[in-house]
Write a structure and sequence with these properties.
278 residues; binds adenosine-5'-diphosphate; binds pyridoxal-5'-phosphate; PM/HMP-P_kinase-1; metal-binding; nucleotide-binding; ATP-binding
Length: 278
């Protein structure tokens, strides 16, 4: 038997199972890669306070990472919620010490239920230490805007311009996710020479908690299988579009995407891919 490739998520725990570490591990499993997790923080809602993030010590983060590397090894990593500049600096140095070919950085800042997942003073550390190590970064529109000093981004053309400008931060590839715009769900990839758009129909649902987490985890999973970046993004876009098509909610809270949907029902929609040279 050939061993599956090995993917690691370094991210926060999201108790409801829709986002964060939980979404990443479900995605890895669905895509047939061996999943590992390094928990950086625990997000839990406290109805009577706004203290909904419980930090994990740097020592515990380092201990998880070295255990996973020694017990298993790693082919590709994705980072999600990192919360503080201290965690970002540590995670960047751990990643630099590991023999990996693929790093997906999802610059998670604010959750869909408005949890603050990154401190304001951590943004510079993200730019300085982690993004330059990335194979690809996957900001949504508000995150891309913050990384570009609060530039307004409200059209696909502005997403294209933003993707080109974000490459100056040092990541090889930039993928801006258009989930927050109206109209078709268009994501823009810039690889340094080409702009590629990946377009899916907009699905009429609010249940997209963890969509960005699952999408970046799916890209990481495909990269560990030695797919190139274009193939990895296309397959991940098919995966997340199908997971959103079959999303649901158990309560009146924004619900999860359906991680098993592609396995159970096959791809829900064709993705339109367009490519232009810059
Ligand atoms: N209603 C929707 N219909 C189809 N695709 C969507 C929808 N909402 C988000 N997406 C897609 O889901 C992926 C995650 O995007 P987004 O929700 O913007 O990320 P995040 O969770 O980081 O905010 C992207 O490919 C985006 O285009
Ligand atoms: C730990 C963690 N990471 C990431 C996210 C981001 O989720 P989303 O992709 O829905 O923005 C959340 C949302 O609450 C979270 O709790």
């Amino acid at each position: 038997m050939k061993h599956p490739s090995r993917a690691m998520t370094i991210a926060g725990s999201s108790a409801g199972g829709s986002a964060g570490i939980q979404a990443d591990l479900k995605t890895f499993q669905e895509l047939d890669v061996y999943g590992m997790s390094i928990i950086t923080a625990i997000v839990g809602r406290h109805p009577k306070t706004d203290k909904n993030v419980h930090a994990i010590s740097l020592e515990a983060i380092e201990a998880q990472f070295s255990t996973a590397i020694k017990q298993v090894g790693v082919d590709g990593i994705k980072t999600g919620m990192l919360f503080s500049k201290e965690v970002i600096e540590l995670v960047a140095s751990l990643i630099e010490s590991a023999p990996i070919n693929h790093l997906v950085v999802d610059p998670v800042m604010i959750g869909k239920m408005n949890s603050k997942l990154l401190k304001d003073d951590a943004i510079e550390a993200l730019k300085k230490y982690l993004i330059p190590l990335a194979t690809i970064i996957t900001p949504n529109i508000p995150e891309a805007s913050v990384l570009l000093d609060h530039r307004s981004i409200s059209t696909v053309d502005e997403m294209k311009k933003a993707a080109i400008d974000l490459q100056q931060l040092g990541s090889k590839n930039i993928l801006i996710k258009g989930g927050r715009l109206e109209g078709p769900a268009v994501d823009v990839l810039f690889d340094g020479t080409h702009l590629t758009t990946f377009e899916a129909p907009r699905i009429d649902t609010v249940n997209t908690s963890g969509a960005g987490c699952s999408y970046s985890a799916a890209i990481a999973a495909q990269l560990t299988k030695e797919k190139n970046v274009d193939e990895a993004v296309l397959e991940a876009k098919q995966y997340i579009t199908t997971a959103i098509e079959y999303s649901f909610s158990y309560t009146d809270v924004v619900g999860p995407t359906n991680h098993a949907a592609k396995r159970n029902y096959g791809n829900a929609h064709d993705i339109i891919v367009k490519n232009e040279k810059i």
